Amino acid sequence: MHDASSPLEVAVGDLRLRSPLLTASGTFNLKTDLTGVLDVRGLGGIVTKTVTRKPRPGNPPPRIAEVPGGLLNSIGLENEGLEGFRARELPRFAAAGVPLIVSIGGDDAGEFAELAAAFGGRPEVAAVEINVSCPNVDRGTAAFAARPAAMARVVQACRDATRARLWVKLSPESPDLWAFARAAEEAGASALTVANSHVGLAVDWRRRRPVLGRGAAGYTGPGIKPLTLRLVQTVAGATRLPVVGAGGVESADDVMDYLVAGASAVEVGTAYLRHPGVFADITAGLERFVQEEGIGRLQDWVGTLAS
Ligand SMILES: Cc1cc2nc3c(=O)[nH]c(=O)nc-3n(C[C@H](O)[C@H](O)[C@H](O)COP(=O)(O)O)c2cc1C
Asked: Which distant-in-sequence residues (6+ apart) come within 8 Å of 92 by Cβ?
């Protein structure tokens, strides 16, 4: 646990975090990870799995494959829906004692707005992350990631529904991501998460079939880090909003790379799935940087990359 003056403390806008490390949406499940949460030293916050209005079963199996540089997944927003999440999962997450960011998803602006209203007003929810970028669903998301105006309508509907902090999670597949960043800012976003999974494909050429049940899938892990880092730099230069980086973070060096490129905090997904001790390891690495390299406060490194 870090006190208020900890050099690891950062801020995403007006939300203070005791560490720049957040769990990435969909990769951290309190049903199985309760002891993990309690043991995780220095976790800055938890981002939940994306919640939709109704329960969703997700995509056909198999849904995860190991590939060079990371994972392919086509989970497809499997979740127990608003009512189930609010009754059973929200209290557990709230009890973890770190800022909670609830990720929401939907097919249209109305569904997003309903979810933003349901979670935005709750004291245990520090922010709502609007997932307009899941690569593993067919409806809605494809349009949101293709046109800034379609995405902005979702953000505006959420802003009209709540005064809560709204983080908008962008797609790395969007053309001209800076235009999406500006549109989200104008529509009332509080921060931008950059980014969701890239899109990839694994095939079994002998069977002439995709390896995963749905075909194309989200590509995550260290292989996407250079791609996402570049997007963070682009988005951070395009808006005044704080940026939360997500893509291939595995080490304290990766965290510093993202901060320098313009991220105020980072989300960690695939590395945690592979190694549950990763948050403690990265925290120890950051503390070592502070003590042995005298880097001072992490916050002061944000966006300091020479051009
Ligand atoms: C198994 C799995 C499930 C995911 N589910 C979601 C999700 O429900 N909502 C979402 O916004 N992102 C989801 N993601 C994307 C992650 O939140 C994150 O953006 C991405 O994995 C990049 O970070 P990483 O390279 O550290 O994994 C998922 C990723 C994985 C690997």
From this structure: 30, 31, 34
